[in-house]
């Protein structure tokens, strides 16, 4: 981008970008996404339980792994959440606020990281001291850093994941802080303590970083081997690095190889029962010699093929600019996770980095490839949330592409001979930013209107209203029965009734059991949870709990049933309905 912008103006623009980004992330945060999903209420209630009792919902004191539904959540987000619940109470705002703040801080960290990377012209070939003339496309590191931070602020990938309470977004913030302090460490060994601390926090906040962060550290050692060789001759520097690293990373490795760590990975592993079935089907289909069958159709080959395909998919136009992921909790259908207006600039940025082939190009492209690995090891790849480890690389490379393109236009001989060619280039820059503004307006408008209305079902919408109805009528009924159709109703009841944790995990009538590698709750207090198919059609028939430990007979008592549409015994009376924002029915509430 031509011309020099005064340093003070850069700060004003950066503050404006951060302020706008914060507003976009916090605006109407309690209402959009349209409801807390089951992961958000689990994070919230476990933090509430820690605050109230010092124990999680299973009654374990200050755990480092939260058992939750059997998904074994990492502790980072939950412990960070505790003071927010203390300040604002147990509600949507408090649960989502840490993610909002993390997403906003990540914008500032991106600016600082890009400034540090390019301030000394590490992209210059041969390690020569760069020309300080603006003619170098990457010389004005502040322009590049500012544009990178702007794209992190507005791109769908980073914007969307900064509004719900997702552990991944907080882990990204920790990781970026760790990387920034690593860049500071290259000039001051003391900062390795800060770097190790934040990188360590990332691996205890989201599972993808448990794979990515150690690999990225190896990449840093390779890229900055000269600096490491110079700095690590000092014993004090080695101690600064090893002590915090051992504190965070050694327990992580032991936990990963434990039963709990393996349980988590089994739930998302590429090689599952379905994969084994596909291998058997391929053997039956081709009917090769038994030796060649085992040689070609086996688990290692299946894993390698699918893993490679998954990694490549993270660079595809379909994923980045087409439809994004398949999970509607992490992206808007028919919108990519990056704006189409940036597609050409991203490609140009990649080509530029491949052409210069220096250590910063190795760092950025290596970061993208390594960032795709955690998601690629799982089913449903490419996965918007699990591949958050890639961020903010696409935004940085896009910014490089933008800077290179406009510098190239300025340097063209026929352009430089055109009168007012500087004004022409500025006009093209305005056109680019106008395209960005239009893209943002279209996306944000869809997010706050159509998306909230049409896809509210993917957020378990309606639980809050249903639980509040049950809570306000609690004394009128002997038993309250909830359908399990929309998933984990017990956690929503715990969250919205704010039941004291001790009264839950120490309850004598709590029915909790394991089935299909998941923990289910059939009862606590006067609340019962049943599958749709276990709701009887005749009023004299009992409700059968899936655990088989109890039946609910409502013939001689007063029962409240909160069910999906049409699943109700005959002669029961409809009291209330809970609708999705698009007008469709989510829950029907009956009494006998």
UniProtKB/TrEMBL annotation:
It is a multi-pass membrane protein. GO terms for biological process: lipopolysaccharide biosynthetic process. One of its GO terms (cellular component) is plasma membrane. The chain crosses the membrane at residues 12-30, 76-93, 100-123, 143-161, 168-187, 207-225, 237-257, 337-354, 361-378, 384-406, 427-448. The keyword Ribonucleoprotein does not apply. It is found in: Cell membrane. Keywords: Cell membrane, Glycosyltransferase, Membrane, Transferase, Transmembrane, Transmembrane helix. InterPro entries: LipidA_mod_glycosyltrf_83 (IPR050297). Its main location: membrane. One of its GO terms (molecular function) is pentosyltransferase activity. This is Uncharacterized protein. It comes from Candidatus Woesebacteria bacterium GW2011_GWC1_38_13.
């Amino acid at each position: 981008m031509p011309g020099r912008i005064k340093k003070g103006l850069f700060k004003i623009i950066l503050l404006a970008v951060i302020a706008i980004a914060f507003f976009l992330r916090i605006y109407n945060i309690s209402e959009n996404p349209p409801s807390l999903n089951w992961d958000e209420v689990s994070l919230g209630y476990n933090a509430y339980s820690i605050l109230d009792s010092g124990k999680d919902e299973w009654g374990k004191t200050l755990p480092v792994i939260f058992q939750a539904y059997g998904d074994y959540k990492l502790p980072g987000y939950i412990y960070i959440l505790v003071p927010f619940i203390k300040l604002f109470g147990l509600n949507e705002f408090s649960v989502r606020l840490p993610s909002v703040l993390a997403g906003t801080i990540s914008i500032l960290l991106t600016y600082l990281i890009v400034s540090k990377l390019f301030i000394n012209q590490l992209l210059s070939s041969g390690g020569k001291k760069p020309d300080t003339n603006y003619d170098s496309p990457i010389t004005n590191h502040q322009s590049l850093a500012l544009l990178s931070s702007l794209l992190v602020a507005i791109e769908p990938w980073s914007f969307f994941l900064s509004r719900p309470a997702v552990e991944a977004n907080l882990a990204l913030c920790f990781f970026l802080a760790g990387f920034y302090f690593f860049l500071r460490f290259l000039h001051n060994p003391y900062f390795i303590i800060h770097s190790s601390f934040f990188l360590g926090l990332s691996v205890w906040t989201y599972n993808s970083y448990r794979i990515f962060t150690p690999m990225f550290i190896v990449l840093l050692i390779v890229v900055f081997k000269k600096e490491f060789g110079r700095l690590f001759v000092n014993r004090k520097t080695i101690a600064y690095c090893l002590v915090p690293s051992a504190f965070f990373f050694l327990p992580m490795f032991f936990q990963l190889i434990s039963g709990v760590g393996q349980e988590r990975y089994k739930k998302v592993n590429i090689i599952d029962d379905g994969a084994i079935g596909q291998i058997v089907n391929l053997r039956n289909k081709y009917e090769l010699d038994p030796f060649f069958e085992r040689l070609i159709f086996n688990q290692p080959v299946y894993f390698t093929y699918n893993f490679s395909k998954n990694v490549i998919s993270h660079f595809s136009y379909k994923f980045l600019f087409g439809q994004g992921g398949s999970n509607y909790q992490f992206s808007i259908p028919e919108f990519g996770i990056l704006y189409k207006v940036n597609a050409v600039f991203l490609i140009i940025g990649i080509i530029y980095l491949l052409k210069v082939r220096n250590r910063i190009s190795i760092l950025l492209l290596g970061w993208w490839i390594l960032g795709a690995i955690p998601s690629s090891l799982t089913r449903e790849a490419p996965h918007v949330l699990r591949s958050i480890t890639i961020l903010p690389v696409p935004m940085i490379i896009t910014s490089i592409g933008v800077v290179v393109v406009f510098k190239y236009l300025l340097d063209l001989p026929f352009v430089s001979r055109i009168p007012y060619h500087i004004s022409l280039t500025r006009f093209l820059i305005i056109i680019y930013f106008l395209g960005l503004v239009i893209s943002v307006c279209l996306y944000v408008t869809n997010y706050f209107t159509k998306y909230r209305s049409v896809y509210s079902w993917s957020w378990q919408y309606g639980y809050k209203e249903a639980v509040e109805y049950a809570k306000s009528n609690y004394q009128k009924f002997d038993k309250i029965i909830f359908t399990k159709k929309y998933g984990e109703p017990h956690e929503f009841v715990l969250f919205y009734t704010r039941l004291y944790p001790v009264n839950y995990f120490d309850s004598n009538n709590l029915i909790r059991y394991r089935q299909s590698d998941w923990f289910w709750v059939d009862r606590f207090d006067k609340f019962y949870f049943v599958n749709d198919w276990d709701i009887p059609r005749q009023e004299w028939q009992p409700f059968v709990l899936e655990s088989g430990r109890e039946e609910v007979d409502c013939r001689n008592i007063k029962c409240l049933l909160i069910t999906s549409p049409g699943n109700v015994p005959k002669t029961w009376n409809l009291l209330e309905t809970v609708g999705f924002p698009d007008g469709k029915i989510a829950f029907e509430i009956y009494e006998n």
